[in-house]
Amino acid sequence: MTKKILWASLALVVGFASCKKDDPNNNGSTPTEELKLTASTDATKVQQIDKIELTASGSRVTAAPNQVAWLVNGKQVAKGVKYTFIPPLPGNYTVILRAGNREITRKYTVAEPRFTKGAFLLNEGRGTDDVETGTLTYVDVKGKVILDSAYIHVNGTKLGHVCQDLAFANEKIYIISQNGKRNGGEGLLTIAKANTLEKIKVFNDATLEAKDPTHIAVIDSRIYLRAGDGVYLGTEDGGFKIIAGTEKAQKLRMATIGQRVFVSTSDKKLLMIQGDRVVQTLALDEKATGLALADDGNLWVSISKDGNNNQILKVSADPADFKILDKQTITPSLHNYTTASVIQAYGNSLYFGVAAWGKPVSIQKYDFTAKTNTLFVNLQESSYASEMKTYYNSLGVDPKTGYIYYAGIKGFGMDYKTNMTFVLDPQGNVLVKKDNTNSFPAGWYFIPTK
Questions:
Q1: pTM for the structure as a whole
Q2: Residue 388: which residues within 8 A CB-CB, separation 6 or more?
Q3: Residue at 7 is within a domain
Q4: Which domain holds residue 45?
Q5: What is the pLDDT of residues 31-72, one digit of tens each?
Q6: Least enclosed by CB within 10 Å: which of 161, 213, 393, 425?
């Protein structure tokens, strides 16, 4: 009788041990020193593109480190002692560490899309480089997060070469590059889900690519592309045709209000496009250096003649009354040698960077109501980024929070590899800051929220 009880007890213990080993929810290490797994976080509920550093140890790892394998959802993804797991999309993930006939399982869940708030910084990448393509940096101030190469981490593929502009519409994000597939980029126009960055499709057109497209606006199914010889209209399936009267469209970000697209020209005009034609034209005193949306449904326009005759205009967006509502001349330069807007708006405050080519940078703030200009911050102060001496599509302002976003580089050539991205509150305090997170910025884009 005693022997039967003993054997039954042993069987029960073995049964429990087997259950523990096979338990699919086991997030711990095996009970021996043969194989262990340590992670940079104990969390199992994580977010898209969080980096989770996993390390294997134990006698089996020491004896044969090259035989250590990592699997994600049943597919081997890496070999070696260390593995960085980056969950690309919402869903459930099973990560297995395997060494010989022993293995450890970790389970992770991404419950929801990540990119529903915050901002994107689009990066051109080095245009003369034979390796780089465009990249997308994600910034979440509340979470104090700056993540570079977000699109690559989600899709495993590269954006097009020299990305220039993007637009949000139809719960999608549309990203235009100037050189398409060069350097292994995936194409001219990439379309992805806005809340996850999951790729939907890539559109390529060699004829259109040869026109050097630089800027994009999207309204419903209509896609407007500014290129070297004018503004083209097409759809996600192509069919791009030039819009008459846009041949002198400036290499400057366009603005969209309702069903209308606003485009500046090299001969000192502002065009209003609706549908497939130019419906209104407004003459300006100088060439535009920036367009920004006003919170009353109208348009801010900055103009300058190489740093002289600097003006900020308030322009009506009404097709029946397309005119300058108010204009103010300011002393600081509104010259723009980049392709993003030189002015960024928050209410009646206009922020802009005063930066001669490769010279120290300051951010100015012009109050259109009070008609006063003040120095907002001197970026050469050590608390900001004193080594970031070059302004290159660097400034953005969140129109809802008033936070100031800045992506600075040390200089041109290979100096761009020394760079910094940060966000300031309206008082100039640093909210989040991180080195080496941009690559020749193309501009800031704030994620639409409902």
A1: 0.91
A2: 361, 379, 408, 409, 410, 418, 419, 420
A3: no
A4: 26-110
A5: 468 999 999 999 999 999 999 999 999 999 999 999 999 999
A6: 425
